[in-house]
């Protein structure tokens, strides 16, 4: 049997490294029948593809899932391709315009102003959870501060946070992991409710602007952005903020506890957090379409073919990171990972993500210095094509 990725198996997310190493060595452009995509696995190739949007197009690349049934597609209607004008899903010149608008909200000053709030959110949560002596890191500790921070940033009222959170989860499941047909229909219903909610939020801010991202973007409708673009931006940024950062934090804490590096000394926080992103990135890669026929390492990728840029593999490329499967807390080039992508689509929220990961560790370490994994547990990941996140993580202190 030919080896391939397998999204329905645990190893696909949990431990793909021996497989990826074989691909980098022997088959750096791998045609995956299972993913329906060509997979680039070497760091240099992944970075070069990100840097060449004319050959590797983002247009429609997020408009998954390829595994939706006809009934689900019918239910979603025009929203089946809902993300079609999201900034990560378009090429220049649309991308240039959208990115300019989004970047207005992510100025270094605006991002830095959120750090104190984020620390406070972590402290408040620990006041409640610390006396218990044990927790599921994923549901009890990892998500709440990021969800609350993102909600404040976007302008979601506190009372609606739980609603948004549960719908964002459904969205992820629907589009990014394979689901049985009945479940797809349920998730599609939830997704449509979520879009309605964001639509109403945009209307509310148009009438009564506040000091938040939604108001800032809504004010650009008609001038730089369309209504649909704004709704897509807001709904997907909520997704980015609510899920990717907590996933990365969970992966990070698991790695640090397994390596026996807890609490992380202040001087090493920044590098430790980059090294954790390199070895256990919350993003596994990005999809692109070949804009024309491309030949790489002797393999011809036909025009229009789907291509996965495997940042997970790039982060373990031995030609860039010696002894790549080993966690090295002070690895000098840890930050050369590609977990935030590269080039024109480089994650616009990267500064905001880093601003959460480091302070979360800085607060958690001193508050829970005896944090450890509950022995004997199975470490389980959510099954996903593009993301790595734990389903649960039992910890005690
Ligand atoms: C550890 C957390 C995060 C990871 C691993 C991550 C990963 C990524 C990656 C790989 C891309 C590039 C996609 C591509 O090239 O196709 C990206 C783009 C993007 N990210 Fe993030 N992200 C994170 C956090 C965030 C946060 C907190 C936000 C916003 C609050 C955010 C908003 C975005 C947006 C809007 C884009 C599209 C940028 C563009 O296309 O120009 N991300 N992210």
Automatic annotation (TrEMBL):
The keyword Oxidoreductase applies. Coiled coil: none annotated. InterPro entries: Cyt_P450, Cyt_P450_B, Cyt_P450_CS, Cyt_P450_sf. It holds the Pfam family p450. Keywords: Heme, Iron, Metal-binding, Monooxygenase, Oxidoreductase. PANTHER family: CYTOCHROME P450 YJIB-RELATED, P450, PUTATIVE (EUROFUNG)-RELATED. Belongs to the cytochrome P450 family. This is Cytochrome P450. It comes from Nonomuraea maheshkhaliensis.
């Amino acid at each position: 049997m030919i080896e391939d990725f397998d999204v329905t198996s645990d190893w696909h997310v949990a431990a793909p490294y021996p497989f990826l190493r074989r691909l980098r060595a022997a088959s750096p452009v791998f045609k995956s029948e299972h993913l329906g995509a060509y997979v680039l696995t070497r760091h240099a190739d992944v970075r070069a593809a990100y840097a060449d949007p004319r050959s590797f197009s983002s247009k429609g690349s997020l408009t998954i899932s390829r595994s939706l049934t006809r009934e689900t597609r019918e239910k979603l209607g025009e929203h089946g391709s809902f993300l079609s004008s999201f900034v990560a899903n378009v090429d220049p010149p649309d991308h240039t315009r959208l990115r300019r608008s989004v970047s207005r909200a992510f100025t270094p000053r605006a991002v830095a102003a959120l750090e104190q709030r984020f620390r406070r959110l972590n402290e408040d949560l620990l006041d409640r959870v610390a006396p218990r002596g044990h927790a599921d890191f994923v549901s009890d500790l990892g998500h709440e501060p990021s969800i609350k921070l993102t909600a404040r940033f976007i302008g979601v009222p506190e009372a609606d946070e739980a609603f948004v959170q549960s719908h964002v989860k459904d969205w992820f499941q629907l589009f990014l992991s394979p689901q049985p047909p009945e479940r797809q229909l349920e998730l599609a219903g939830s997704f449509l409710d979520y879009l309605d909610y964001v639509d109403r939020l945009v209307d509310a801010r148009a009438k009564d602007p506040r000091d938040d991202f939604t108001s800032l973007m809504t004010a650009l409708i008609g001038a730089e952005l369309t209504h649909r673009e704004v709704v897509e931006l807001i709904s997907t940024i909520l997704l980015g903020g609510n899920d990717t950062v907590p996933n990365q934090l969970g992966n990070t804490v698991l790695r640090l506890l397994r390596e026996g590096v807890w609490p992380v000394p202040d001087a090493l926080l920044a590098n430790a957090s980059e090294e954790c992103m390199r070895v256990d990135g919350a993003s596994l890669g990005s999809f692109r379409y070949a804009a024309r026929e491309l030949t790489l390492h002797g393999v011809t990728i036909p025009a229009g073919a789907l291509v996965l840029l495997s940042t997970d593999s790039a982060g373990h490329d031995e030609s860039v990171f010696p002894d790549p499967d080993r966690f090295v807390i002070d690895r000098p080039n840890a930050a050369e990972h590609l977990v935030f992508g590269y080039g024109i689509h480089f994650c616009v929220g990267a500064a905001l993500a880093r601003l959460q990961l480091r302070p979360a560790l800085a607060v958690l370490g001193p508050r829970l210095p005896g944090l450890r994994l509950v022995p004997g547990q199975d470490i389980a990941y959510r099954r996903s094509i593009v993301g790595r996140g734990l389903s649960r993580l039992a910890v005690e202190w």
